[in-house]
Amino acid sequence: MTSLLDDLRVALGDSAVLTDPGETAGYSSDWRRLYSGRPLAVIRPRDTAGVAAAVKLCAEAGVSIIPQGGNTSMVGGAVPSDDGSEIVLSLERMRALREIDTVDLTMTVEAGVTLAAAQAMAVEAGMLLPLSISSEGSAQIGGVLATNAGGNNTLRFGNARDLVLGLEVVLADGQIWQGLRHLHKDNTGYALRQIFVGSEGTLGIITAAVLRLQPGVTARATAFCALPSVEQALALLARLRARDAGALHAFEYMSGGSVDLVLAEIEGTACPVDPAPHFILVDCATSGPQAAAASLADMLEGVLGEALEAGELTDAALAQNDAQRLAFWKIREEHAEAQKRAGASIKNDISVPLAALPDLMQAATAACQALVPGIRIAPFGHLGDGNIHFNLVQPEGADGAGFLAQSDALMDAVADVVQRLSGSFSAEHGVGRLKTGMMKSWRGGVELGLMQRIKAALDPASLLNPRVIFPAEQAED
């Protein structure tokens, strides 16, 4: 190990190899503090050649690598083991914007660029990078793609994989795959980029990407709505789609209980509508001229008026300026932080067909309340694409550790409902270390076998991010 560290220092420079526990602590635990480890070292290459050299050295030494971006995983997807045998490879120094093409509507960025920085680069060029997630200020492009992040605008623009045209990837043996193509159509064999997107760093290390852009937004219309039921939320969604599906960028759900937690825990938040059991944040946008902007606001106001008359809404507020719009979004974006402050919480990142959402909410709520009386049910998320973060917060005054001890039972109760409704136990967060035990029963047989064969082909020694995605017994086969 000493020899490997010496070789890494020669290849990357002394400042790129961290071994002091004080310096490596921030790379050793996940955001939720579910997992903690002790890395042999944290290495921080400055370029793709450095990543390739480091990976090759580790492969030759038989040392596992944990690729890490902004370390914002909700499922423990980038944490080293606690035996001091693994290397954390951080992409944080690779922050270059390599190119923006306003004709082709693409941008080429390195893996360490934060999503928020990439968005700002696009805006400066008059473009829009439509991917948006709550952790975009810290989450880095490499990790966002490795987990196939979803986010607020999935309803309109799809998940991260739908925005990727090309990738540059360092493979498990240190080879570099140069796939940074800008082509919108390229039907030449397997779409290799899609194998790496969503692979959670188990097949290769993404070092750069070509991303699709959209014309810059010239105006937005945003509303915060109070509703009596999830069924009425779906009715509102149908109204908006029927009027102008292309303008609808986000349709975000918040339960009354989850909004209450935000208002109690996050300073500077205030609900703009009357109390209700359910809330929806609607965000519409246009890239058209000023006349189109006025038409957009009129469209949204008209739809909300119709919904109020039909009893689908009990109250609604239309943002009058950017400050109000950001205040609406702050309530939505602070849900995870508010739940963290409120005590121990259990996360369920699930998806079901849209028509099954009312059944999901009712059945999963009843199942969890039966297991833990007084539990705070705090679901929120991307109702427009069927993805709900069905989160559970400890009862007020309860023991957090005791609550978390019931995690398996509560997650199983929610999962049973989701499986009955033909849904998924991980809609956008990935599998990570947290949910590997669910893979066999949900994706077993041929499907899991195919994944394992791909892993064996690209990383036969299983040195890239071990312990994620695959059940432990299969990872050892």
UniProtKB/TrEMBL annotation:
Domain named FAD-binding PCMH-type: residues: 35-216
UniProt GO MF annotations: catalytic activity; FAD binding
UniProt cross-references to InterPro entries, sorted A to Z: FAD-bd_oxidored_4_C (IPR004113), FAD-bd_PCMH (IPR016166), FAD-bd_PCMH-like_sf (IPR036318), FAD-bd_PCMH_sub1 (IPR016167), FAD-bd_PCMH_sub2 (IPR016169), FAD-linked_Oxase-like_C (IPR016164), FAD-oxidored/transferase_4 (IPR051264), Oxid_FAD_bind_N (IPR006094)
Pfam families (UniProt xref): FAD-oxidase_C (PF02913), FAD_binding_4 (PF01565)
Domain of life: Bacteria
SUPFAM superfamilies registered for this protein in UniProt: FAD-binding/transporter-associated domain-like, FAD-linked oxidases, C-terminal domain
Presence of the UniProt keyword Glycosyltransferase in the record: no
Keyword DNA-binding: no
GO BP annotations listed: respiratory electron transport chain
Keyword line: FAD, Flavoprotein
Family the entry assigns: Belongs to the FAD-binding oxidoreductase/transferase type 4 family.
Official protein name in the record: FAD-binding oxidoreductase
Organism annotation: Acidisoma cellulosilyticum
